[in-house]
Amino acid sequence: MENENLGHGRGKVIDELLRGRELANQLRNILNESGDVDDNNGSTTPFAEHLLKEVLMTFTNSLLFLNNTQTSEVSDVQLTKSEDSLESNCKSTSIVKERRGCYKRRKVSQTWEKESEYLVEDGHQWRKYGQKTILNTKFPRNYYRCTHKIEQGCKATKQVQKIQEDPSLFKTVYYGHHTCRILQSPEIIVDSSLSPSHHSSMFLSFDNSFPTPAKQDCPFLSSPSYPSTSSSIISSLKKECKEEIVYPPHSSSANDYYLSGLTFDDSEKDVTLSSTLDSHQLGVNIPDILYDDVLNWPLS
DNA sequence: TTAATTTGACCGTT
DNA sequence: AACGGTCAAATTAA
């Protein structure tokens, strides 16, 4: 289109960023060799380690941002004003669920999208209920609904699909609120074996056609309930992608969770939450402070 | 045995 | 008629 120059410059920028990240990774390896960084309380140059992570994070976020602006339009989650009229419009309204497939096509209430470089447990329990190949897309779309749909009538669903232009990224579109409640301590679970790189970033993008989402509307920001076994999630995620991902080998370990930055772009009317995970273990606890920081963000 | 996933069928929308 | 979202029987995993 009109940004050929931009595209050309972008390539150079990406090259430089990739090189910078690679160099930072090398430096990190040197740091790791020189001391035990297995646990976070490692005595060796914690500040240097911290700085290094910041640097890596910057590279990764920049790369992801460039990727993001190039390939994805986060704009077409269209919202219809009709509030969730799920049960209202079956043709045979009196016979609820008598006939298979008697449902109303989703008239979106509230949606938001997330793109992530790795597979993140978003704090809720999901059950897969479908998978479809979508026209002109390489990767299938997976459909999930809340595990507690039956017991608690939770209507939250999500759709997950690999991004064609960058298969290391997943696009997740969330529909509806979680009305279920299971109280457990907040926790983010990441499997590094699914992550294409040691350091990952993710972007949250809220469609702004509706009022600013409440905390609980966003699975990442909400007080989450996590399954007790992270391995189940991981195994399911692995299954989900078994035909499409070549898993990188495990590497060195560090288990910090970073919420690096949060950009609030008023002109775009999008709230973009940028965070970086550096985890090589299955379970990572987010410090409360970080959570509070996110929750107290001035969204409007 | 129970719970979760897979997958083709079903059906509403376009 | 094609497409995509959901259902549910069959299959697999825990």
TrEMBL record:
Entry's Gene Ontology molecular function annotations: DNA-binding transcription factor activity; sequence-specific DNA binding
Keyword DNA-binding recorded: yes
Key words of the record: DNA-binding, Nucleus, Transcription, Transcription regulation
GO annotations of cellular component type: nucleus
Pfam family, one: WRKY
WRKY domain location: 115-178
Annotated compartments: Nucleus
Stored PANTHER family: WRKY TRANSCRIPTION FACTOR 21-RELATED
Protein name: WRKY domain-containing protein
Source species of the chain: Pisum sativum
